[in-house]
Amino acid sequence: MLATLVSVVDDDGRLLFANNALEDAIGLSRRSLLGVPLTDWFTAPELLQNALQGSHGHEYAVIRYDAFLKRLNNEPLPVHVVVAKSDAPGEVVVEMLPLEQQTRQEREERLIDQAQANKELIRNLAHEIKNPLGGIRGAAQLLQMELESRELVEFAQVIIHEADRLQSLVDRLLAPHRRAQVVGDVNIHEVCERVRSLILAEFPKGLKVVRDYDISIPEFRGDREQLIQAVLNIAHNAAQALKERIAAGDAEIVFRTRVLRQVTFGRQRYRLALELHVIDNGPGVPEEIKDRIFYPLVSGRDGGSGLGLTLAQTFVQQHHGLIECDSVPGRTDFKLLIPLP
């Protein structure tokens, strides 16, 4: 049950033992890993080779350094490597501590607390706006009926129109909390395909939507329409941010699905989880709003409502999941994590 990746290697660096965490991280069973040089699983194998030589030569009791561990069908994992001589002759213990684990856990906890605060703020604010709004609209309608001046009637109509616009905004804010979940079997690739068709219908030229699916992902219980809306909100934001690249004809959005094993998020550990990436090659999230993109009414483009990501986070959290964002110029990656049965 250790989160630390632990292995034992012989004098030649071949694996004699790998714990469950190392199996899960690499994506291969212990049986497949045994006898294979551990150096094969590092992007810079010479660092581990030098550490093992130093250990065998009794130059160091413990050697520590940072490296990247290769993984099947995944990006390399940044780890802190600890190489120590074992009590057993001809054996060396190699521990690998994921560097991102603590940072990610802290970030996830902030996202969860932020989303909960957003939910309460939205609900309370929407109700406070909704109550007087009906009175304002009703009074403007009565006033419009009594007025004879055409100019004053137009002013009353402006009040009615703006009240209706505010009412529409309030309804969108309250929508996730009003509608009960309609739970059924969900195939995440059907969700992605639906979103893909909607995006390509709106942006038929200059945009390529790439599929990178793990077809082994099982169905799970959830609200299909909520998940379609969540993924659509993210993908639509990406497409909007890609307008310049769409005009140039080289815009790209990637839908990538993977299975994570023995993963912790949302303050819980899950045996299996879905990892859905929505990746675009746009300009990236503006630096000034990076830490606030899931806040309500925060938008990085003119005319945006700032509700799309807030609603997406709410819908995913109703599936006990989480959305994270990693963005640099040229690559923005929204990652949805949802527990699997």
TrEMBL record:
<dbReference type="InterPro" id="IPR005467">
    <property type="entry name" value="His_kinase_dom"/>
</dbReference>
<dbReference type="InterPro" id="IPR035965">
    <property type="entry name" value="PAS-like_dom_sf"/>
</dbReference>
<dbReference type="InterPro" id="IPR004358">
    <property type="entry name" value="Sig_transdc_His_kin-like_C"/>
</dbReference>
<dbReference type="InterPro" id="IPR036890">
    <property type="entry name" value="HATPase_C_sf"/>
</dbReference>
<dbReference type="GO" id="GO:0000155">
    <property type="term" value="F:phosphorelay sensor kinase activity"/>
</dbReference>
<dbReference type="Pfam" id="PF00512">
    <property type="entry name" value="HisKA"/>
</dbReference>
<keyword id="KW-0547">Nucleotide-binding</keyword>
<keyword id="KW-0418">Kinase</keyword>
<keyword id="KW-0808">Transferase</keyword>
<feature type="domain" description="Histidine kinase">
    <location>
        <begin position="124"/>
        <end position="341"/>
    </location>
</feature>
<dbReference type="GO" id="GO:0005524">
    <property type="term" value="F:ATP binding"/>
</dbReference>
<dbReference type="InterPro" id="IPR036097">
    <property type="entry name" value="HisK_dim/P_sf"/>
</dbReference>
<keyword id="KW-0535">Nitrogen fixation</keyword>
<keyword id="KW-0902">Two-component regulatory system</keyword>
<dbReference type="InterPro" id="IPR003661">
    <property type="entry name" value="HisK_dim/P_dom"/>
</dbReference>
<dbReference type="Pfam" id="PF13426">
    <property type="entry name" value="PAS_9"/>
</dbReference>
<dbReference type="InterPro" id="IPR000014">
    <property type="entry name" value="PAS"/>
</dbReference>
<protein>
    <recommendedName>
        <fullName>Sensory histidine kinase/phosphatase NtrB</fullName>
        <ecNumber>2.7.13.3</ecNumber>
    </recommendedName>
</protein>
<keyword id="KW-0597">Phosphoprotein</keyword>
<keyword id="KW-0067">ATP-binding</keyword>
<comment type="function">
    <text>Member of the two-component regulatory system NtrB/NtrC, which controls expression of the nitrogen-regulated (ntr) genes in response to nitrogen limitation. Under conditions of nitrogen limitation, NtrB autophosphorylates and transfers the phosphoryl group to NtrC. In the presence of nitrogen, acts as a phosphatase that dephosphorylates and inactivates NtrC.</text>
</comment>
<feature type="domain" description="PAS">
    <location>
        <begin position="1"/>
        <end position="35"/>
    </location>
</feature>
<dbReference type="Pfam" id="PF02518">
    <property type="entry name" value="HATPase_c"/>
</dbReference>
<dbReference type="InterPro" id="IPR003594">
    <property type="entry name" value="HATPase_dom"/>
</dbReference>
